[in-house]
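URGENT: need a sanity check before tomorrow's submission.

F., can you look over the Ig-like domain-containing protein record below? I want to be sure the sequence and structure line up before it goes out.
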Amino acid sequence: RKSCADHTLTLWIGMCPCPAVSEGSTVVGQAGGDVTLSCKYDIHLYGVLSVCWGRGSLPTSGCSGRLVTTDGPRVTEETRASSRYQLLGALEAGDVSLTIRNVSAADGGRYGCRVDVPGWFNDDKHHFDLLVEDAPQTTTTSTSTSTSTALPRETVSNATGTTRDGRSFVFILFLQHTERIHIQDCGGGA
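Structure tokens as predicted:
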């Protein structure tokens, strides 16, 4: 049986706002599109904090290959490496996710998000490994078949292809053409 002190210690550890360190989530994006690397912290627990995003693994402090930082609820524009790096989440709510616009193969690799939690070695660190795939090519294949009978004549055309996000589509076009045939009675009747 545990003593009262043991219970108190167990509860305290269970509620400890300990920093999180992620080993690395893999995110896959398509060349030419936008990719968002999700990084959030508990604003109610910590208040509004400063954050930095960098390329590569995060060092002991700060960010290497700095891409963009915040000073609490606002982006520090002078630290932004490029306008392609955007923090579009609600900073005042703890959403400091990084959106990279118009990604290319050169953007592939490791990224780090560091939330500057006060105190020694308390920072909340998240790593992401970005894989950039070539955008799928949109292809269209067209086939046409015609059938005809005396009246009416119908043409069916099918076109199939693939959209940018890999979904297939089929267009079916029906054209109906009616010919008017005049039949003349040439006599010879009864």
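My own read: The chain has two domains: 17-133, 140-177. Residues 17-133 form a domain with the Immunoglobulin-like fold (CATH 2.60.40.10). If you see anything odd, call me.
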